[in-house]
Specification:
Elements lengths: L1 H30 L9 H22 L4 H36 L6 H25 L6 H29 L3
């Protein structure tokens, strides 16, 4: 139990630190004299790469992965991230369609709502699979820490993007 408390305290501390670091990176990008054009695919890819590197670094620390465990875990994790990225892209596209409808274009709201809910469910299922299938590498406590990390990471990233949009206007 004592080890469990220590791991959870460490997990909470790590997740908080990750959120702060992500916020600092995003704020630094916004504060630059010549901010990167976020419509530029190269700028988006560079930002995504940096965020992913930080995410993997924090997960390595959080889960206390040695080189062997990291070598086994991260290929699965990167595949998970690629699948999630695909779904999140589809969600963004669906949200853009909803926004066009709200601006007066003719859209099928029910279809768009159903698509959004289906995609959100797929994203949830991917996280569920990642956590459950990591049982051969991670103990139950580490799996729980991974679940919290994933949920808090996405929540904090969404919050930061909302703050940036609010401060700088819509994309």
């Amino acid at each position: 139990q004592r080890r469990g408390d220590t791991v959870m305290k460490h997990a909470t501390k790590t997740i908080t630190l990750l959120g702060a670091m992500l916020l600092l990176i995003l704020l630094a990008l916004v504060a630059q004299a010549q901010p990167p054009e976020m419509d530029d695919p190269e700028a988006q890819e560079e930002l995504r790469r940096r965020v992913e590197m930080m995410r993997i670094w924090k997960l390595t620390e959080l889960l206390n992965l040695d080189e062997d465990r990291a070598t086994e875990f991260f290929p699965r994790y990167r595949a998970h991230l690629a699948d999630v990225d695909t779904i999140e892209h589809q969600i963004r596209e669906t949200h853009l369609e909803i926004e066009r409808g709200l601006r007066g274009e003719d859209v099928d709201y029910q279809k768009l709502l159903d698509r959004t809910f289906d995609l959100e469910e797929q994203r949830f299922q991917l996280t569920r699979e990642l956590v459950r299938e990591s049982g051969d590498m991670l103990n139950a406590q580490e799996q729980a820490a991974l679940l919290l990390f994933e949920n808090r990471y996405h929540q904090r990233l969404r919050e930061m993007m909302m703050e940036l949009r609010r401060d700088n206007g819509p994309p």
